[in-house]
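Q: What would this chain look like folded?
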Amino acid sequence: MTDLLDFTGKVVLVTGSSRGIGAEMIRAFDQRGAKCIVNYVDDPQGQNKADAENVARALADPLVIQCDVTNPEQVESMMMEIGDKRGGLDILFNNSGIIRDRTIKKITLEEFESVVRVNLTGTFLVTQKAAAVLRNGGRIINLSSVSGQMGLFGQANYSSSKAAIIALTKVSAREFARQQITVNAIAPGFIDVGMSKGMPEEVTQNFIKQIPLGRLGDAGEIVNAALFLASPMSSYITGHTLNVNGGYYMS
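A: My prediction, written as structure tokens:
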């Protein structure tokens, strides 16, 4: 019987995969035979590089690439390196993102634009430059958020970027369809890793009360959604946003 979650020989890039959901994602693809590319962005302390190298040490045949997804030249260079060293790309998971919460009355223009630049512009640039190396029949998966669907308090920047990613996903799905490349988004709710983990306990408990399943999500549940969207099982699904939120938002 064919294993539809066997990605042997597939080349997978997960942006922002030095930690959090991105790291869990790249490990899962590696365990299923994929040739994985770990991406990180330089930071003054060198922590992102150290984390990326730590993730890579557990992978079978990793390629680690430093790339700021908001820098067109660096993104293009990353895609050229993938083409040269891996021959092309089969699966792209646009995971890179940041969060800087502040109410509309208090947020600065820089705080607003910095989040939109990483989350939205970064997703656009990586998708655009990946077009040169994506193989026919490939997969693009973008990380949106329940915040982009509901507009959460204090997240004018984050919600706007994640809502726009849903629109970008739909446009991309139409434009890449001629190559039989599907483009979909995952909209997580509150997940017990990464950004949600930094919430005060009182805030976390308040959100849990509003989630029908009565708990935070697990990173593995986002990974499973991505594996499905990257697999042959989703071959006729494109332009879709898959909600993984325990029922917090139902569209």
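The chain has a mean pLDDT of 96.
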